[in-house]
Structures are given as structure tokens and as C-alpha cells.
Design brief:
Layout: E1 2-11, E2 28-29, E3 32-33, H1 34-44, E4 47-54, H2 58-65, E5 71-75, H3 82-87, H4 90-93, E6 99-104, H5 112-124, E7 129-135, E8 143-147, E9 153-157, H6 164-167, E10 171-173, E11 177-180, H7 181-188, H8 204-211, E12 216-220, H9 233-240
Parallel strand pairs: 1-4, 1-6, 4-5, 7-12
Antiparallel strand pairs: 2-3, 6-11, 7-10, 7-11, 8-9, 8-10
């Protein structure tokens, strides 16, 4: 067991663009629900515990996953953004040590073999926050990674808040983070909704961490396919091929 790692998997979304009444993470890819791929890889990381954030039709998700060991559930009753979703795990985790890996129930290609060395690097270097990035030719719809001239992370800007130059950047933010438990909830409780969607963006935690002089690194992975999420039926079909 990795005594320093806990995993939070976000799976509360309705998936409106899937045109279905089924919770998005229960849509099937090659015969298995999306959430199964993520939880299978999570288990390979051997965390102390995994917390599934549920919401829309949560009974169906719980019924499907409740035979797994070491899995706990928290509920996001209102869809107020990714930062708000992670915050629902505060009561379970706030007094615990170690680190939290944040994953998504609709990102089925993520691999433990990719995550493990990044987790190890994060823990060995005693960072407060490590984020995974990737580069694709068309990152439309995703938050962009803004680096300084030395390649250090400067900020992340959601596409709807990007200026014209920032939209041309191909390095994007899949939203996969590793935080120290001791830091994350203090940060999340200070996130504001000063954005176009009036939501609590998990990405805003990066700026707050920087303001607090926390130790941060952005690590770009080679295979961007691992971090592509499923938001529409068309995207699901693409992954099937």
C-alpha cells in the first residue's frame, strides 16, 4: 500500500452533451463503463483509499462500484465546478496526511504506469502541487498552460477566459493534479467564482498556491490520448475505433 497516497475521482456530472439519461461515467467503452477503467488503474497505484465524488443519479454509480474494496463516496449535490467537487471530500480527508491524486471518471485511458513515476517524483521532492499537462494540435475547449520564459508554470487560463494569444497555445490542462492533503482544502476554501461560468475552478487553485509560495511543478506527458476525456457521444465513438 502507498501510505502517502489518496485518490479522489470526480464522477458527479450528468454529461448533458451525451444526450442520455445515464450518468456519463456509466456509458460503455468497449463493453465496460468509463468509470471502471479509471478505478482499475487507480487500484494499481495501491492508495490508502479512493474517494468517488458522485452526484447525478448517484445510486446507479454506487450500485455499480460498491463491490470494490477501499472505495468511499461523497456527494456533490450541486454542479458548481471541479473545485467544488473536490471540496466535498474535505470531511473525510482534512485531518489526514500524505497526498491526493485527482482523477476523472470520464477519462478512461489514463494509465497507472504513467502516473506512478510522477507521483513518486512529487513525493520525493516534497512538492505541494504537481500537475500533469499534455500537448495536442487542437486544444479547443481546454484550459491552456501558460509558462514563463524559463519554462516554469505561470498560470492556467480556461479557454472561455483566454485572450487571442493564449488560445494559440497547444499545451493544455487535463486537470489531473497531486496535492499535499495539508494544503488542498485551505486553497479550495479560498477559490472564488470570478469567471465566465460562475463556477469554482480547480484550476484557480494553481494561482492561489503560487500566491502562497508553494512548491509547484507542471509535468508534460508524452501520450496525450491518456488524458482525453469523454464529453460527447461522438468522442466516445472515436475512442471505440
Amino acid at each position: 500500500m502507498n501510505n502517502e497516497l489518496r485518490i479522489v475521482v470526480l464522477a458527479a456530472g450528468k454529461g448533458t452533451r451525451m444526450s442520455s439519461d445515464l450518468p456519463k461515467v456509466l456509458h460503455k467503452l468497449k463493453g465496460s463503463p468509463l468509470i471502471d477503467y479509471v478505478l482499475n488503474e487507480s487500484e494499481l497505484l495501491n492508495p490508502v483509499e479512493t474517494i468517488l465524488v458522485v452526484g447525478f443519479k448517484k445510486e446507479q454509480i454506487i450500485s455499480h462500484t460498491n463491490t470494490r474494496s477501499n472505495l468511499k463516496y461523497v456527494t456533490q449535490n450541486e454542479q458548481l465546478g471541479t473545485g467544488h467537487a473536490v471540496l466535498q471530500s474535505e470531511e473525510l480527508l482534512k485531518n489526514k496526511g500524505g497526498h491526493i491524486l485527482i482523477l476523472y471518471g470520464d477519462v478512461p485511458n489514463i494509465k497507472a504506469s504513467t502516473l506512478q513515476p510522477i507521483i513518486d517524483d512529487h513525493i520525493i521532492n516534497n512538492r505541494d502541487l504537481t500537475l500533469i499537462t499534455a500537448e495536442i494540435d487542437n486544444p479547443t475547449g481546454y484550459g491552456r498552460i501558460i509558462r514563463d520564459k524559463n519554462g516554469n508554470l505561470l498560470k492556467i487560463v480556461e479557454e472561455k477566459d483566454c485572450n487571442d494569444h493564449e488560445k494559440t497555445i497547444k499545451e493544455w490542462n487535463p486537470g489531473i493534479y497531486i496535492f499535499k492533503v495539508a494544503e488542498i482544502f485551505e486553497i479550495l476554501n479560498n477559490i472564488k467564482t470570478n469567471n465566465a461560468s460562475k463556477e469554482y475552478y480547480l484550476t484557480d487553485a494553481i494561482g492561489l498556491a503560487q500566491e502562497s509560495s508553494m512548491k509547484i511543478k507542471a509535468i508534460k506527458i508524452q501520450n496525450s490520448d491518456e488524458v482525453i476525456g469523454v464529453n460527447t457521444a461522438d468522442q466516445l465513438e472515436e475512442l471505440e475505433s
